[in-house]
Write a structure and sequence with these properties.
alpha+beta; Calcineurin-like_PHP; glycoprotein
Length: about 475
């Protein structure tokens, strides 16, 4: 957009806000963010772009058409793993008397099982949420198709449970938001034959405007109601207002994860196991030093990991520890100093993060140096957010950095067996997913690193 048009838009929006103060709470906030995005576009257009790939410009916010439905009609349906062979179904109704009941079965329209769950709601300044339902169903058969209905009415949904053993495929995309690029990313993920979606923070980019949580829920429902979405929080989920609102109220109310099932006392950090993989979701915005509850829980969780049963160990959090992009440089240093020695002693195979709106994959690394027994770190905060891409990288490229590119996209991790996994990153090239990076990863248990560091891990777990 030419500078003259941006200036005209700014003048129109400022006059609009002055003319109607009631717009300040929502419209003008949206306007500020949109103008920031427009300025980002100008910077991107003026930047030098590699000759081998011309990135399309950022896309505007994606809006779903509004359809009037009964107040008891389930909306924003999504599912998540809730312990062995159980699934949590979450949905929202505008009717506070709607029941938190899920009917389910293995044939369309035939529900031979029923479960009743809990519900919650929250208020945020002038916004009141609908009734948020959380119902756990199961036990469910592994790798099986189920049909279910929420609240005894509305449409029938279909889900598939993950397999009991390897192979298993994860779709990975962080910093999603709800733009046209988000829609492209979701469409590309939908083409992938995956079992579980992993999201390392920054979901809706609601940024205090609570109706944006609702629009995000409607946007992701087609995918999130069919495969479990396992998420952790990012900075855009904080939404705290000093003296008025605690942080993470919206996130914790809407996206309940299996923290209780994993012995955690906070929805901001938890773990789960699926098909031979132990996955730990950490909180970049929860206390993480050696005296914190999160660190204490992490040590306890690692002490329970059986690498014979779950040979692969993955960790997700929002702010990357290894990042050669100029954006958010050094922000993960404190968490890295506190937790990396413990995760290294535990022989974590792969660490996935977001926050930086670009893609980067490291070699196996520990303490800033290439290490054959270190973790592979992947930054994948490029799901399609409204803030645009982080184009500028530090040069020369660090020795530990293997591949990096500022493009929107998603990742696919297929863990084939106890020794090998295949990782691929798929760039959103216009409206087609293009595989731009891939690598075979060998597990640390098969390379002898787990046995080599067994005593080191034991000593760290026993240290008060």
């Amino acid at each position: 957009m030419p500078c003259r048009e941006i200036h005209s838009k700014l003048i129109r929006e400022v006059h609009c806000c002055r003319a109607d103060p009631t717009l300040l709470a929502e419209v003008c906030v949206d306007t500020q963010m949109e103008l920031k995005l427009l300025l980002t576009v100008l910077l991107i257009q003026s930047a030098t772009v590699p000759a081998d790939y011309i990135r399309p410009p950022p896309r505007k916010a994606f809006h779903l058409p509004w359809h009037s439905k009964p107040s008891s009609y389930p909306q924003q349906v999504h599912i998540s793993l809730a312990g062995d062979q159980h699934m949590r179904v979450t949905w929202i109704t505008d009717d506070n008397s709607a029941p938190s009941i899920v009917e389910y079965g293995t044939s369309p329209g035939q529900y031979d099982s029923v479960a009743e769950g809990e519900n919650t709601s929250y208020s945020y300044m002038f916004y009141n949420s609908g009734k948020i339902h959380h119902t756990v169903i199961g036990p469910l058969e592994h790798d099986f198709e189920y049909y279910y209905r929420c609240g005894q009415q509305g449409p029938e949904f279909q889900l598939r449970t993950p397999p009991a053993q390897l192979p298993i495929t994860f779709a990975v995309a962080g910093d999603l938001g709800q733009t046209g690029w988000t829609k492209s990313t979701l469409d590309h993920i939908d083409q992938c034959k995956y079992n579980v979606h992993l999201l390392p923070g920054d979901l809706a980019y609601a940024d205090y405007i609570q109706r944006h949580w609702d629009s995000f829920g409607r946007l992701v429902q087609p995918l999130a109601s069919a495969r479990p979405w396992m998420v952790t929080q990012g900075n855009h989920e904080v939404e705290s207002i000093p003296l008025l609102k605690d942080g993470f109220v919206s996130y914790n109310s809407r996206w309940k994860m299996p923290f209780e099932e994993s012995g955690s006392n906070s929805n901001l950090f938890y773990s789960f196991e699926v098909a031979g993989v132990h996955i730990i979701m950490l909180g970049s915005y929860a206390d993480y030093d050696e005296y914190s509850e999160q660190y204490r829980w992490l040590k306890e969780d690692l002490s329970k990991v059986d690498r014979k049963r779950t040979p692969w160990l993955l960790v997700l959090f929002h702010v990357p520890w290894y990042n050669s992009n100029t954006a958010h440089q050094g922000e993960g240093a404190d968490m890295m100093a506190a937790m990396e020695p413990l995760l290294n002693a535990a022989s974590v195979d792969l660490v996935l993060a977001g926050h930086v709106h670009a893609y980067e994959r490291s070699k196996r690394v520990y303490n800033g140096r290439v290490d054959p027994c270190g973790s592979v770190h992947i930054t994948i905060g490029d799901g399609g957010n409204k803030e645009g891409l982080a184009h500028k990288y530090i040069n020369p490229q660090p020795i530990w950095s293997e591949f990096r590119e500022a493009s929107f996209g998603h990742g696919e991790l297929k863990i084939v067996n106890s020794t090998h996994a295949f990782w691929s990153w798929h760039r959103n090239d216009d409206d087609e997913p293009v595989k731009s990076d891939d690598i075979w990863i060998t597990s640390l248990i098969s390379s002898g690193c787990v046995d080599q560091k067994r005593n080191e891990l034991r000593n760290k777990l026993m240290t008060p």
